[in-house]
Structures are given as structure tokens and as C-alpha cells.
Amino acid sequence: MHKIENILKDRILILDGAMGTMIQRYKLTEEDFRGERFKDSTTLLKGNNDLLCLTRPDVIETIHREYLEVGTDIIETNTFNANAISMEDYNMSGLVKEINIAAAKLARKAADDYTKQNPDKPRFVAGSIGPTNKTASMSPKVENPIFRAVTFDDLYFAYKEQIEGLVDGGVDLLLIETIFDTLNAKAALFAADEVRKERNIALPIMISVTLSDKGGRTLSGQTIGGFLASVSHIDFLSVGLNCSFGAKDMKPFLKELGRLAPSFISAYPNAGLPNQFGEYDETPEIMAGQIKEYIDEGLVNILGGCCGTTPEHIARYSELVKNAIPHKPAEKPKYMWLSGLELLEAKPEINFINIGERLNVAGSRKFLRLIKEQKYEEALTIAHKQVEDGAQVLDVNMDEGLLDGVKEMTTFLNLMASDPDVSRIPVMIDSSKWEVLEAGLKCVQGKPIVNSISLKGGEEEFLHQARLVRQYGAAVIIMAFDETGQADTYSRRIEICERAYKLLINDGFNPLDIIFDPNILAIATGIEEHRNYAVDFLETITWIKKNLPHAKISGGVSNLSFSFRGNDYVREAMHAVFLYYAIQRGMDMGIVNPGQSVVYDDIPSDLRNLVEDVIFNRRPEATDELIEYAEKVKNENTGQTEQKVEEWRSYPLDERIQYALIKGISDYLEEDLAEALKVYPKAVDIIDKPLMDGMNKVGDLFGSGKMFLPQVVKTARTMKRAVAILQPTLEAQKASSSGNNKAGKLVIATVKGDVHDIGKNIVSIILACNNYEVIDLGVMTPPEVIIQKVKEEQPDILCLSGLITPSLEEMSIVAHEMEKAGFSIPLMIGGATTSKLHTAIKIDPKYNNGSVVYVKDASQAPAAVSKLINPTTKNSYIKEIKDEYSSLRDNAVDKKEGLLPLSEVLGKGMKADWSEYITPTPKVEGRQMLKHIPIEKIIPYIDWKFFFHSWNLSARYASVQHIDDCPSCRQQWLNSFPEQEREKATEGMQLYKDAKELLDQLVFNKAEYINAVFGIFEAYSDNECIFINDICFPMLRQQKKNEKGEYLSLCDFVAPKTSGMKDFVGGFTVTAGIGANELMSEYERQGDEYKVLLLKSVLDRLAEATTEWLHAKIRKEYWGFAPDENISVNEMFALKYQGIRPAVGYPSIPDQSINFLLNDNLLQSKEIGVELTENGVMLPNASVSGIIISHPKSKYFNIGNILDDQLEAYIERRGEDAQLIRKFLGANLV
């Protein structure tokens, strides 16, 4: 058969287009995916495209032939997810081998048929190997960056099984594609290499990476250069780009790839960028015009299509590639390539590579202590400092007798990978134990250096380890050590280095990746044999550079001055002099302290001469003289560093502290507070004066509208950090600022049965910023706990919050208990379901001893509290409120008069002709669970208007989502607002940016926060109930008189039992908070209220967005009553779809207790992690539940107020305690 390598030199080959896009064209059902064999599967199988190789092979083979018919040279097997890890989602990991064999045979048959038709145009089969749905370089848990959901070994075994199946099925080559994490790809390459060796076959490998954004990096953060270095150890056929972009946007990155890669280049872009429905709009004509540029400019050797492309797109390629000149691969690298997230090419102009030495438990007592104490985050700051000081590689060593080296190396490298500032540079994995080195190699997605292997264990062991180093994709340091021991003379050094070099070269090791460490040993020890160590090392450098082509030289420079421990200046002077001469001779890199401040030219001449005498062994007495000099200058520090400071750092101390608070800057808090402790007599004075002055300014700015909620929250975070810094001093001085100069004290709580606390937290923060002491009791607080805390704390005001209707009754209970306990302090009421009218009618009369004050939102709280605490305004303010409440109660009688008796409204609902609309039978009946829904699927469905509303900002700022991230675009958007509003709009822009960054972080870490359960069941209406799966769901009907004379109930939209028509109703519960508590708790531990509120508000939006997404899926797919629906997300927000999805606790189902019927009886929502409080509130907080009705005339409405006659009838149908139901319907009763 024709060799593909030879063909690629002469012409551009065509790869097929998208398999998934073509499968979607067939509109396959769940039954198609199941087939007869899997009809009883308990897992939904629709979407498991690879399974179709077994259940619908006719579809897959037809798609292959469609692509071959239009001129495709290489077709991919339908095995993108056919690995044990991805198949876990469908409980089908045991079918991996079978699926891959079947898929390869299907493609093989089709390709062979077309090759027979035209032997001059051979067709090839590429085994498609996807990235799996997990990542080895990143943690799915934001709060635990060390955690990995999958390991290198997991991936290796999964990939090996897949590759063996593909080879058994007869593929010509492998295509490792859509690489978003290079460590995953390295595991696949390792497995492929193993299979090639075991079967003794030359199996070409194509590699294709996907970039996550226009910054040109993979999802795991690597640049193109960094990625190429990571895979440069493999002899692959081609490297390329796929997915992510359309052809136009992919082009600049393709050029960069072609400039660097010494291989053939492939490209298979998407058909443009996805629209808001995830569909691709670029036509074959448009895409062909862009692809033509690739060909005309000689950028590619293999061309295909990814998402959204079809045979119609690929058909255009055949004509374009005729007589085209293929890309000419770049030359092989002349210099060593290393990488972290970015490429480090050891070019001559670099001169010397600094390898940071401080992440070594043997060389840094601080690092050892932190690792032993498992203070990994603090240990990571040492890495940061090394990078800041100029380290180009970071050496990591965990060799210490009491440490588990494998565990600690894995843990710390995983943590380093989570920090892009650190992981951008390569790692040197340093250990004397092979198992530790190998553990490290399995953690690093870049191309690291292994330090080290040697001939100490003989040639067989040496070559075995070297081959594995190469297979894992690393460069290697060879220690000058053999079976007889360490080389300590010039002759022994060159003997061992030459022997090791020849062994490696003859075994196929790339000479560019060979680094020798000829042993830098301690000099000036007083031992005669040690005097020539430095000279011998320098001479060895010269010999290696002359005799061992491309080999590099490294060494541990601090070993040289070991005898001068404790005298840093002399040690650094010795290192500077030694490196000066070593680099001249060709030393390429060294393990050094990058923060070393002593420079060769700055060393006093007398010291420099002494050091040179010792290094070059010029005079026997030089050692003694250097020791004498060292004693004289011990611990001296020569030279100072200059720091550039920001302008505000030059302000007076108090102004600096206030500025930091107002701007939310905590970088200099420790420095400024340390200075303040010298100025103020006590730590408490710092809190009461400059800190509280700053907080008072914040309160004034917020009150005047010049500062906005997100800024206030950041300020509170900074204040908390300042107090935490001062806390040890406060305790030592037995001092406290508590209550001394506070404006007042408040107790605040979310009432029993209610878990909602975003509003409460905002109020707490704002009041704290106004110099009030706030004691927050949290959520679900029983009345007895509140009363007890009021007794203990004696606050000036009690504040109650609640979001759900039953919370209104709970607030009334607390008011009554306050009355019974004899309290008279003001009671402040707030929350989404509260209102001034309800407060006047239901709560205020229960608390005659005191006053009840309703506040609409957080912005009103400071003014209300100020009036209630100020003696000059308190009485008049309370009288004003009581008069207003009395008036509201008097007028409430009129509202009752506007309601009709239940008997009059029962026959006046929506009139539907049930013979006109026949409810479609659902495609999927019964209960279904969707776990770990990817957040990136949900983000397009977020309605940002409500996000801004939750932060007390205008919904108009939601338009920020449509502007490009360029300065002019942002300025143009800001200019669209009146001048006096632009500062607020700027804050809105920043808030949106922070929210997007948080979402990106959750996506990056593959946070598994979102679950859903839904069911579509037979249903009918009868006696003001909807019976869903024979469970009675009582409904309410409007009673407020209206001109239309129509009084709606949800029962109106479901076929009555008497009609004899078959109807269906869906139920759903979604949550976006599973597992989010860990991240929330981490933010709380950090005292970061801003991030806590940001996360909560984002999770709430994700829950609502998931509801929107799920409803659309149900309408079009699972139920399918609107299969041809074609509306935008904005049109969804505008309710342009068929049917409705009323949520429990909302206007048409105000009874929160319906959640017990829906979640416990119908959906069993506990299985997706949703629990209910005693008041029917769902936990996690970011959850939504409701029902789905399909009738075209159904619509949303508000039940409004009801009379006792309907309440009594409802209580009877509900079958629950009357008092309990009254509590749940409190907001509807008059």
C-alpha cells in the first residue's frame, strides 16, 4: 500500500468533516441508540455517538461513504469518546474494545471499497482518539487545586485499550485529536508508543490540538510552542489544529504552528463560531474561501473539517487542493526545547539558564518545614518568589527521610500546575529515587528536566530509565557517577560522560536533551584532595563542549561554597565568580538562587582575587585567607534594591490606610498596619480611628450613590483582613474595639426554614461599613435562638430576612415571641417576598411593645437604621411608620371587597377545546436524571439582567455582555450612559468581568455543580387538582375581579378527566450548587465577602439558566411537543416558546409545600443532591423546581389574593394541617 508519508510530500490530503454534525442530521431517537441489545439500559444512551457503531452501523458507514464520495483521503473512525473514562458516563466502559474494533472495521470496509475503485487515490483510516472528559493537569474542584479526577495511569490504560481495539480493527494511523490538556495527550502518546513496540508496527500518529481562545492557549494554559515542546519526543506524522475556531480565526495560529513544527501540518476548523444555540452557520462557500488562503500560502498538508462541517463543505476542498503545493515542514530544532505553559528554547543568546534551587527540602529549611506541615499554598509562594527573581526553570526535590517522596512530589507539582505564574516555566524533577522521578513525570504537561539518572546501577538500568524519560517526554541530567562511585577527578568525569553519551546516542536519545552534571563539589574545605575540584569541573566543561555534540552542562552551584554556610555574602561572591568562568567555557545552566544579589563586577577586588585564587587553586594559603575574610564581613549585605512605588503609597499613613479600604487593596496592609502599631498606643486605636474613618467614608460614599455594592463588598473584605492582621496584637493587649465607638449593634438572621442569605449578607456588609456592629446568626434560625441571642447581646435593632412565603409567617412568630419576652427594640423586616402591606397587616400587630420597620432593599437599610438609633429622629420616624401601617390596614378591607367568591370563579377559567389540541406523546416518558451538566453548556442561557438586579444595579448594564473586550468598545459602551451614571456603569462592567472570570474558572476546573431531574408523566385535571402520575397536586384559582371575567388556574391548561383526552405534564428540579459549598467555605475562611456574594449570585443565575436550557431540551427533544422550534435565547427570555414552566413558590404556584409532592413523591430529587427544609425550601440554595405544561394557550399569571372559602377548599384537597397551609399561603391571604 502507498505510504502516507510519501504522498504527503507531493500533495495535500483531505480529511473528513464532522461525524457528530452528520449524526444529528439523522435525528436519531433514544431507541436508535439503544437498539435491541441495550433496550433495557437504565441509563439514557442518546448522545453516545460511538455506541452507534454497534446499534446503528448503517448510519455510521453511510456517513463514511458520504465523505469518501466527495474526495476525502482520510476518514476518522467514530471513536472520539470510545475510551473507558468517557464511557463511564453511560456505564459502558466494558464495551470499549468492541466499539473500537467495530468502528475501525466499518471505516476500513468503506475506505477499501473506494480504494478499489481508484487505486491511484488510496483511502486511509485514522483511529479517532479524543481527549476524554477529564483532565490530568487541572482539578475539577476549584477549592482543591491539588485534586485530580483522573491520573496519568488511568489515562494510559484507557488509551491503550482503545488503541489496541483500533489496531485490531485495521486502522492505518492514529489521530489523537482535540487536545485541550497536553498531559492527557502525553498519556495517549505513551500508550500508542507502547502498542507500536509490543506489536512491532510502524503506526503513524497524527496529533491535533485545540485552542481555548484567541489568546492562542489550550484549555490547560499552554501556548503552541509550549505544546510542541511537550510532544517533541514522539516521531509523529503531523501536528495540527482543530475545533475552537472557524478557518478565518484559526489562520494566525496555524502560521505559528507551521513556523515551529518540524512535521506535516493539519487543520480542520469548525464551520465558523457557534451561534447562541451551539449551531454552526458558515456555509461551504464561505468556508472554502477561507480554506483557500491556507492552500495559497502553503500552510497545510492535511485539510478537513470539525464541528458543523459536512460533506458539502469537504466537497469544496477537492478542487482547491488540485496542483497545490503542500506545506514544507520547518527544520528540526537546533536547540533544546523545554516547556511549562510556555516554550523555553535554549538558544545561545540566553547564555545561561537559571534553575531555581529553593524548592528543595534538602536545601531549604523553610521549604522542608512547610512541606512537613502540609502548608503547600505557603510553599508555593517560594516558587513565586523564584520566578519573580528570574528563575527560568524550577527544581523540585522531595528527598527527605521522613517524607513520602512520591506523594509529596505529586501533591506539589499538582499545586504548581494550578498557578499559571509558576507553571509557565519548565520544571526540573529532582530525586535520587526513580519512583519519585516517575511520579513527577506523570504530573507535568510541559517538557521537564529529570534530575537525574546515572550509570551507578549499570548500563541496563541506565538505558531502561533513559528510555522511560524519553517516552514521558523529558530532557535528562546525567550525573557523573558509575558503578564504582562518583567522579571527583577530571579523568573520571570525562570517562563517565563519554560512556553515557555514547550509550544514549546509540539508543536513539536526542542529543539536544542530554545534560551532564559533572559534579560541582565543595572547595576551600581545608582538605587537600578538594582543592582542584573547581578546576576539574571547568576543564570538564571545555572537554564536553568539544567532544560531545549538542550536550548541555549543568550543576548545583551552591555545592561549591558549602564550607561557608552561614555567610551568604561570601557564598554568593564565590558563586558569581565561579559562574563567570563556567559560563565562558560553556556551562549552559545551573541550580542557583535566582535572587542572588552579588554581581561579578560589583565584588570588591580583594575578595574577587581571593575567590579566584581558591577556585583556580593558585595558592595553598588562599583558603585560609578566604576564611579569615569571611569572618570579617560575616552577614554584611552589600547593595540595596530600589522599588518603584505607586503614587498613593507616598500619602500619610492614615490616608494610605483609608485609600486601601476604599479601593479594596490589601497588598500593603501588613506593612502599613505594622507602621501604625508604632504610631498608635493600642491596636484597637487603629481600628477605631484610621480604619473606621475609612469605613465611615465608604458608608457616606455608598449612601450618596458614589460607591456601589460590589465596591462596598470588596471594602468589607479588606477591612476583615486588616482586623485579622491586628488580631494577635489585640489579644496580647487584652483590648477590643467591640462596641467602644460603634454607631450601634444589630442582630440579623434569616428565619427558620429559609436558606436564602444573599440579601441578608449584603445588608450586613453595608451596615458594617456604616460603623455598626452586626451579629449575623446565619440562615434557618429558629425563633428561640433569635430570642436568646437578643437577650445575650442586647442589640439596638433586630433584623429579619426571608425569601419564601412561609418566612412571612416565621417573621410573625418572631414578632410575637419578642412581644412575649418584653422586648421593645425595633424589628426590621426585609426580603423578596416581604412587603410593606404584609408587614403592616401580619407582623406589626404582633409586636405592640416595639416597632416594625419594612425596608425594600439593602440601599434603604443604612438610612432606616440611622433614624431608628438616633435619639433625635427615632420617635418621629417610628410614629410616621405606625401611622402609615394603620392606614394600610384600613385600606386592606377594600382589597377583600374586590375578590369574588370561589363559587363564582370556578366555572370561569380558560375555555379550551380539547379536541383541537392533542398533546404529543413524549419521546422519553418517566423520570430521568442528568448529572454533572457542563457549565459551559448553560452559560449562554444566563439572563444577565437579573444578575445585575441582585447587586442593586440597573438591568441595563446587561448589555455589557455584547461588547468586545477592547478599550474602544468598552469606552463606547460607557459613553452610551449619561455622564453622571458612568462611574456606576464602570462598576457594572467590572462586576460582569468578575462574574465571567468566576464562570471561566468553574469551566476550567470542570466544576460538577449542576444536576437535574425531570419526568414527563400522564396527567389530567379534576376538582381543581392536576393529577400527575396519579399524584394529586392541588392548585389555586384567581379570585380578583377583572374586566375580562377570566379567572385562571393551572388546571385550565391540562386536559380534564371528563374530556377523555390523554395529556401529559412534566416536573423538574435543577440545582447549580452541588459541591459549591467547599469553594464558598474557602472564600468565607479567607474573609472574602465579595467572592462569597459573587459565587452565590452566579450560582443562582446558573440554576435559572439550567431551567431555561432544560425546558428547551424538553420542548424539542425529550418530550418533543415543539420539535421545530427555532427561537433565540433572548426570545426564550421573552417567553416566545410554546407552553409554560411555572415554578414552585412563584405566582401561579405560591404554595411552597408543593415541593414536597414534587421533589419527594414524584421526582425523588435527593438522588441529585437536593434536600428540602421544613418549609419546602430546596438545598442547595441555587435550585429551581416546577412543572411543565405544553398547551399552546397556556400562559403565566399571578394567583394574587384569595378568600377564606378557597383557602378552606384548598386545605381539604391538600390534606395537611390548616395552620401549616395558612403559613405557606400567607402572602395570598387578606
UniProtKB/TrEMBL annotation:
Domain AdoMet activation per the UniProt entry, residue ranges: 893-1230
Q: Which residues bind Zn(2+)?
A: C243, C306, C307
**Ranges where the Pterin-binding domain occurs:** 352-612
Positions that bind methylcob(III)alamin: G753, D754, V755, H756, D757, S801, T805, A858
| GO annotation (BP), single | methylation
Which pathway does this chain act in? Amino-acid biosynthesis; L-methionine biosynthesis via de novo pathway; L-methionine from L-homocysteine (MetH route): step 1/1
Stretches assigned to the B12-binding N-terminal domain: 644-738
Q: Which residues bind S-adenosyl-L-methionine?
A: D943, R1141, Y1196, F1197
Q: Which GO cellular component terms are attached?
A: cytosol
Q: What class of enzyme is it?
A: transferase
Q: Please give the cofactor(s) recorded in the UniProt entry for this protein.
A: methylcob(III)alamin; Zn(2+)
Q: Which SMART domains match?
A: B12-binding_2 (SM01018)
The GO terms this record gives for MF are: cobalamin binding; methionine synthase activity; zinc ion binding
Name all Hcy-binding domain ranges. Answer: 1-321
**Sections of the chain in a coiled coil:** none
Q: What does this protein do?
A: Catalyzes the transfer of a methyl group from methyl-cobalamin to homocysteine, yielding enzyme-bound cob(I)alamin and methionine. Subsequently, remethylates the cofactor using methyltetrahydrofolate.
- What's the domain remark here? Modular enzyme with four functionally distinct domains. The isolated Hcy-binding domain catalyzes methyl transfer from free methylcobalamin to homocysteine. The Hcy-binding domain in association with the pterin-binding domain catalyzes the methylation of cob(I)alamin by methyltetrahydrofolate and the methylation of homocysteine. The B12-binding domain binds the cofactor. The AdoMet activation domain binds S-adenosyl-L-methionine. Under aerobic conditions cob(I)alamin can be converted to inactive cob(II)alamin.
What this protein is called in its record is: Methionine synthase
Q: Which species expresses this protein natively?
A: Dysgonomonas hofstadii
